[in-house]
């Protein structure tokens, strides 16, 4: 497989600064940590590790030593301040750091300093060879905050009073000649000399060092063993132990719910319920959850923001909250009078109204689940009710006065999906977008960029500039740059090789789902493997499997059928008009099918929409698997109406489909009992083009599309994967012949 010329991998937390990554976010943002709790990442960055414990490596002490100054309060009110003392030696008495930084870009260093028995200090960048004019430097009197000397190669500098005699000293400069720098903190004697005979009784205080890119000093961010690079590495908590999903690079969003985790008082109206504070830790492991405690009334028991939240009609919103089961194990949202229900003990979604265009439930750790529902607002304000219930859909009942469910962290955002939680107080709060820019490889004039998120990948072709990541609610896993001159046809192979399909069940029979602009319903034997979706692919990628004896419940009167299929819901195809079908198919390795003349194994079919009196007949256009890898296409037609005798099927085309290999197909079909047309391209090559044939029956409405596996009983297991299934009757898909959609 072709190697990238530059790679970024976010599937492991990094403890090292990467000079090809630029990150910025101006506010806090939440994420799930490796400890299984919700955390709130600070704004800004600090490229220094051990920003407060100045006595340990990689800090370097030269003719000086650092001890704890626990009796001196640090600027944050803690006892973490350090004391820098001199040694009894002639020379410099300093504390230093060095690190790799981007050459040619502004860099800001800062540290909190306070006078002790020494009040004069020199602060400078290190590595003079990295700067035109040597180390950018200031000399400062900590007794007054007055600068005594400043070098000319500084962009800016300041000393900000931080209370109790502390000064936050900032220097900004550009390392224009090299990529190694850091900073020095020199103690000066009473004559402002840098070299002198030291005294162990001479000292000053220091705390809170920071190195960050850019022209401005931002809020101080403490670090321990690792630098803080700003990126949020988000963990999924649904397994036995937290699993790192990748880095969150999210768009801006606003939580419109005031007092999102303070549910007492007038901002929350209660109906036949109260919200007592509990001693059960919330998802962040620091604060505590509330309980929606039901009264003894025979009614619904819920809470609702007061006043009702303002929305914009026609815009999409997502409502979410953290729940934990107590005496009640079901909870619900009621949005504008319509409900969705959640099993908050097992983490599943129950009944829901069609108003909700999407819904989700995620494990938030320690028994908590975050539930979400997406809808389109219908007016300038939207009622958002949150309640507990005794079972799925049973929200109105006689309460016992003590039971309920735990609740915390409520959010309403104008977004098509739930994003990370934003905590609020009296007002709505906005989480700024994450801005992440990756430097393009210096060795390439143009690059193709492959990005893989937790839910799939995509390619950006022929980029010759630095690459700003697109924001998403889904975690980023890798970003690879490839030389555009050599990659050409390998995009799909790279995506498949790096991230093989990760399939999960689509659910029980009768589930509806969308592929492009079409809605499908499932018909399966309700096995976990019957119909599955690849959750790590951006393209619609599904897998169907049928084992011997697996029968859909709808076939209970006809045991001579085995199936796992999708069928197009309420979308009949027109007659006498071009219908286009485009899809990729991979038949998984397995046994050859030995079929009797009456046996069949369809992998796709256009099924007639039968009129009253018609006999159930073979597909008007059907794709069969025979033997090991033979793919045959048959058509059926009749002009008799109603038809009571099953028409004969005619073989129109045949080709070999190598098992384990994707094959791209495009078909143009014209349904007509007398003047039909069929054209088929496989992997860009035309295999058949016939016209003036019969395809279909004289029904009132045209046929509909089904795909998956539909067969007569047989002992062999058959498994097939489908990708990028498109059906169009108003738009040509001819471009897919030479430019098929990628499987990524």
Automatic annotation (TrEMBL):
InterPro entries: Polysacc_lyase
Pfam short name (any one): Polysacc_lyase
Protein name as annotated: Uncharacterized protein
Organism, scientific name: Dyadobacter sediminis
């Amino acid at each position: 497989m072709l190697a990238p010329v530059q790679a970024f991998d976010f599937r492991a937390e990094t403890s090292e600064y990467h000079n090809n990554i630029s990150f910025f976010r101006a506010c806090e943002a939440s994420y799930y940590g490796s400890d299984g709790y919700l955390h709130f990442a600070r704004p800004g960055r600090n490229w220094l590790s051990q920003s407060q414990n100045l006595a340990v490596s990689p800090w370097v002490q030269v003719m000086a030593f650092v001890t704890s100054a626990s009796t001196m309060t640090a600027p944050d009110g803690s006892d973490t301040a350090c004391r820098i003392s001199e040694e009894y030696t002639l020379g410099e008495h300093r504390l230093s750091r060095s690190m790799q930084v981007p050459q040619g870009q502004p860099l800001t260093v800062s540290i909190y300093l306070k006078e002790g028995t020494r009040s004069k200090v020199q602060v400078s960048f290190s590595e003079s060879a990295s700067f035109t004019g040597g180390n950018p430097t200031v000399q400062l009197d900590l007794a007054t905050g007055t600068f005594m000397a400043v070098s000319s190669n500084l962009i800016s500098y300041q000393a900000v009073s931080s209370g109790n005699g502390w000064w936050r000293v900032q220097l900004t400069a550009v390392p224009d000649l090299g990529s190694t720098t850091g900073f020095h903190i020199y103690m000066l004697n009473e004559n402002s000399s840098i070299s002198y005979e030291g005294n162990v009784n001479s000292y000053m205080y220091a705390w809170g060092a920071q190195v960050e890119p850019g022209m401005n000093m931002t809020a101080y961010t403490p670090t321990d063993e690792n630098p803080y690079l700003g990126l949020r590495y988000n963990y999924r908590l649904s397994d036995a132990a937290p699993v790192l999903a990748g880095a969150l690079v999210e768009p801006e969003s606003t939580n419109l719910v005031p007092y999102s985790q303070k549910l007492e008082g007038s901002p929350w109206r209660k109906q036949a319920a109260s919200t007592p504070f509990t001693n059960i830790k919330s998802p962040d492991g620091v604060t505590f959850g509330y309980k929606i405690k039901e009264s003894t009334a025979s009614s619904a028991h819920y809470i609702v923001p007061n006043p009702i939240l303002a929305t914009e009609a026609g815009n999409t919103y997502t409502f979410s909250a953290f729940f934990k089961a107590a005496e009640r194990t079901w909870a619900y949202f009621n949005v504008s009078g319509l409900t969705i229900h959640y099993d908050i003990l097992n983490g599943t979604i129950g009944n829901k109204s069609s108003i909700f265009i999407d819904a989700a439930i995620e494990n938030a750790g320690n028994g908590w689940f975050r539930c979400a529902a997406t809808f389109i607002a219908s007016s300038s304000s939207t009622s958002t009710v949150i309640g507990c219930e005794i079972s799925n859909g049973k929200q109105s009942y006689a309460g016992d006065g003590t039971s309920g469910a735990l609740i915390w962290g409520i959010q309403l955002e104008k977004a098509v999906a739930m994003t990370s939680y934003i905590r609020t107080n009296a007002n709505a709060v906005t989480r700024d977008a994450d801005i992440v820019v990756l430097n393009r490889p210096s060795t390439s004039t143009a690059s193709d960029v492959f990005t893989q998120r937790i839910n799939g990948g995509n390619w950006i072709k022929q980029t010759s500039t630095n690459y700003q990541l697109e924001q998403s609610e889904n975690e980023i896993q890798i970003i690879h740059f490839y030389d555009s001159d050599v990659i050409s046809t390998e995009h799909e192979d790279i995506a498949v090789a790096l991230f093989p399909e990760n399939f999960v069940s689509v659910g029980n029979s009768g589930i509806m789902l969308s592929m492009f602009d079409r809605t499908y319903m499932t018909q399966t034997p309700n096995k976990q493997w019957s119909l599955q979706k690849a959750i790590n692919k951006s393209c619609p990628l599904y897998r169907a499997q049928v084992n011997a004896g697996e029968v859909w419940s709808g076939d209970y009167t006809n045991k001579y059928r085995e199936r796992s299929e999708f069928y197009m819901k309420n979308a009949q195809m027109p007659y006498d008009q071009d219908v286009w079908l485009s899809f990729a198919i991979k038949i998984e390795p397995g046994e050859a099918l030995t079929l009797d003349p009456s046996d069949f194994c369809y992998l796709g079919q256009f099924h007639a929409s039968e009129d009253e009196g018609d006999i159930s007949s073979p597909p008007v256009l059907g794709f069969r698997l025979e033997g090991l890898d033979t793919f045959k296409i048959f058509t059926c037609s009749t002009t008799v109406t109603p038809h009571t005798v099953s028409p004969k099927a005619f073989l129109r085309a045949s080709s070999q489909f190598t098992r384990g290999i994707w094959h791209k197909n495009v078909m143009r079909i014209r349904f007509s009992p007398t003047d039909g047309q069929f054209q088929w391209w496989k992997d860009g090559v035309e295999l058949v083009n016939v016209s003036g044939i019969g395809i279909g029956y004289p029904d009132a409405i045209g046929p509909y599309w089904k795909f998956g596996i539909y067969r007569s009983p047989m002992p062999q297991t058959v498994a097939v994967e489908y990708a990028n299934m498109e059906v169009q009757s108003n738009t040509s898909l001819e471009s897919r012949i030479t430019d098929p959609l990628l499987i990524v």
